[in-house]
Amino acid sequence: MDSPPASASYVVVACDATRERTEHEIKLVVDHVQERHVFLPSVGYQTLTCPESFAGTNFRAREDEVKKKVDAYATKLLPSYEDFESEGVKVTAGFPIKQVVLQEVTKYNASWVILDRHLRRDLRYHLNKMPCKIALVKYDLSLDIWRSHYVHETKITETKCVYSLPKFVSLADCHSVEDIEDSIISCKSYPHSIFSSDSSSTIRSYTKQSSYGNRSRENSSLSDFGSSSKQDRSGISIKGECRLITSQIDQKQNQSGFLPKHSDAPLLCTGCGTRLSIKESMRFSYSDIQSATNDFSKDKLLGEGGYGHVYNGVLKDGQQIAAKVRKEESSHGPGFLNFILRCVLSFSRHKNIVMLLGYCCKEKKNILIYEYICNKSLHWHLFVAPKVCHRHWDCKELRFLHEECRGGPIIHRDMRPSNRLLTHDFVPMLGDFGLAKWKTGDDTLQTRIMGTLGSYNFGIPNLKYAEDGIVSVGTDVYSYGIILLISGRQVGNSKNPEQQQSLRLWAEPMIEKLALHELIDTRLGESYDTYELYLMAKDAYFCVQRKPEMRPSMGEMHMINTRVT
Ligand SMILES: Nc1ncnc2c1ncn2[C@@H]1O[C@H](COP(=O)(O)OP(=O)(O)OP(=O)(O)O)[C@@H](O)[C@H]1O
Fold first, then answer.
1. What is the CATH class of 264-371?
2. Domain range list for the chain
3. In terms of pLDDT, which residue wins out, 99 or 198?
4. Are residues 279 and 377 in contact, defined by beta-carbon separation less than 8 angstroms?
5. 129 annotated as a binding-site residue
6. So which domain of life are we looking at (predicted)?
7. CA gap 205, 217 in Å, rounded
8. Is the interface score ipTM higher than 0.90?
9. Which ligand 1 atom is at minimum distance from the Cα of 302?
10. Cystine design at 354: which of 101, 425, 431, 444 (Cβ 3.0–4.6 Å)?
11. How far is the CA of 216 from the centre of ligand 1 (A)?
12. pLDDT tens per residue across span 47-61
């Protein structure tokens, strides 16, 4: 392990200042961290209450305007935090957040960066760019340590949380960066005083296991971790602890049926430890699927869609699967062709697209085997158990389908909340290619859609499509806009095109007036991010433009969002 540079005694705390709770969090840090540098990047849609609205303005010109306003807001915000300066804390406001964090870490040679929970989206960026230690404050003020030591090489291939502390590190007793480390170690050495007994978080419970017991001592050896490793009272080094925790996670997974080989596979979800291992053969035997799903038992049934029943299962090597069993049995004819088409289209490999692991055909039975996505669908989170407005609106997967696939764009045609599956980190995964089409020729796909309008597409598209049955990539863009609009709001039967259209008519004037809070379901309370709400509303507004040519492409959406956030 590399030692931090001798001069480094700064902790950079990066917060999104538009959030109400942030002030409490900042105070928590400021009250206890002396002679540290607190950095406060800030953006806010309130600054955008300009007389103009989104309406009738060129999309790109509007974005430039937005950036100027946000910059002005950041400058205005600084004086209100001057009090902190007298307490030996430096406050900086700036935009875009991630670049200013990087700038401040470099300038102050900071040894720690603590990101507030709303900056989770930038975690990977920071892990890639910064050599220092990195932690993330979670919703319950507990702390995830993402890097606990200095590194030379910051380029990472995989991000995963090293360990979690169920409470915000008690900074009251910390007088130096080393103390923070000590605090972390001692938390782990005396779990009963610090760790909650809540076992809902798997990482937390792994951490709890790893913090005491003979095994942890046996496994920690100073020679493993370099001479600069710090030791706690029981002789456990920080890095040793991290390594130990990783092995404990693997051990835990093995206990729950994961075999060693699978435990090396890349993590799909850092929340629950689900992994994805790709098989050598795409063809699965029927008996393997039968035993993985307990012979397609009812308690393994995840749900039923138009295509068939979907069962959860665990393969022999520990890989979790979702097996979609086609309702209509066929070994030839249109039904079988549809099965083949789904297979082919599902091969689109992207980190935000549910991966098809393979297929299984037995006599007339056709089964598609997908990776299992562990945290239900966006539909479930919005309508069945709405709690927090999560950032689920990245459109990377659509950009990939529309703009990055070899052989031309793929139009998904079935974008709806139930097709956006989520991990415990709320990473969206697009599933179900049952209606997808390769776009051929010019701007429109001259294919009349089979099936009823209602069952075809949740966001019925493109009024043009509804009228003459022609789809384009703009169809997906429209559906995506509708998904953004319904976020946090139950709109009755989401398959009903008339309701979708009235949702657009209802939302448009509010967005134009920037009365954005009125868009949000009251059940969400204060638990949403105002700036994200602004971005969502803006994106939705443009995506559901009546004329497809007025809608942005997914590439433009992505570019603008990465620039603004
Ligand atoms: N890969 C998966 N991982 C976890 N759950 C899944 C997966 N695929 C589907 N499910 C769940 O199974 C249920 C049925 O999914 P399915 O995709 O068949 O529904 P659908 O979108 O209505 O289907 P269709 O478009 O074929 O009508 C849903 O609750 C969905 O959340």
1. alpha beta
2. 11-147, 264-371, 376-550
3. 99
4. no
5. no
6. Eukaryota
7. 18
8. yes
9. 12
10. 431
11. 41
12. 233 333 444 444 455
